[in-house]
Amino acid sequence: MKKLFAAAGLLAVLWAGGGVQAQEAGQPQVAFDWQRGPGTGAIGQRAAIEIPDEYVFLDAAETRRYVEWTENIPSDEEYLFGPTSDKWEAYFSFYEEGYVKDDESLDADELLASLQESQAASNEERRSRGWSELVLEGWHVPPRYNPDTRTLEWATLLRDSESGNTSINYNTRVLGRKGTMSVQVVARPEDFDAGLAEFKASMDGFAYNAGERYADYMPGDRVAEYGLAALVTGGAVAAAGKKGLFGVIGAFLASAWKLLLAGLVGIGVWLKSRFGKKGGR
């Protein structure tokens, strides 16, 4: 497989046995145990995704190593999936927050106002750290729920107050019997539209395991204290006592590979910009 890097020439990619080794000039080699398609990637004991030809997958331990190597903060347990073209990546994380009822309507204007209020508060923290403020300008994709696939998606537009650079924060939640699967999609801005289309097509190969599906709900199962709207505003993550880690499609300067969106939805969110320093696939 051929690895494409945002900063061409920074890394040398070397093949060795079943793994892939990546090396930054003057730095030790780092190997990642990529699972290559065709095959099936196990997302813990909860779900699985089909790995087509020319796609790769990392288990939780390898994803943690990869995220740390790219100088980002990993979540408790996440799994990487994406094409070998490196045009986008998806990170799967499960939040065991209970069965989320999907019978409420979504008011996009009201939800946006809530997010903007939270972002204004988060900018105080950003200023204290010497970081530029982030302006939440509006929706790129208003919140929408597909009852057939039990999938909630939305995307916000963010602008850096100093550089003027913008980003698209894309989020997906797939409802299950015992919680929700968060899927973070990361892509270069120029690859966003095509990458998002490919990601959605690849989700045809995603499925919860038997007994974990939304339709497998049984009376007596734990039910979440919130609905779809809270998944958008972050209330679900806050209530579960977890750290929100949402998918980001960024258009920031090459020097800003890691950016903390502190409290975008009331809690810390790390922008995962992978494209300056990445392991070969």
CA(first)-CA(last) distance = 6 Å
Mean pLDDT: 76
Number of strands: 16
Rg, rounded, reads 19 Å
Q: Give the domain tally.
A: 1
Biggest sheet strand order reads 4-7-8-9-13-12-11-10
Low-confidence stretches: 1-21, 236-278
Give me the strand/helix succession. EEEEEEEHEEHEEEEHEHHEE
Biggest sheet architecture:
8 strands, antiparallel
- Identify the overall geometry: globular
Q: Give the helix proportion (percent range).
A: 10-25%
Beta percentage is 25-35%
Discrete helix count: 5
Structural class: alpha+beta
Describe the model:
Keywords: Membrane, Signal, Transmembrane, Transmembrane helix. The chain crosses the membrane at residues 245-271. This is Membrane-anchored protein. It comes from Lysobacter arseniciresistens ZS79. It contains 5 helices and 16 strands. It is an alpha+beta fold. The chain has one domain (11-272).
Brief summary:
InterPro entries: DUF2167_membr. This protein has 281 residues and is of the alpha+beta class.
What structural keywords apply?
281 residues; alpha+beta; 8-stranded antiparallel sheet; 3-stranded antiparallel sheet; 16 strands; disordered N terminus
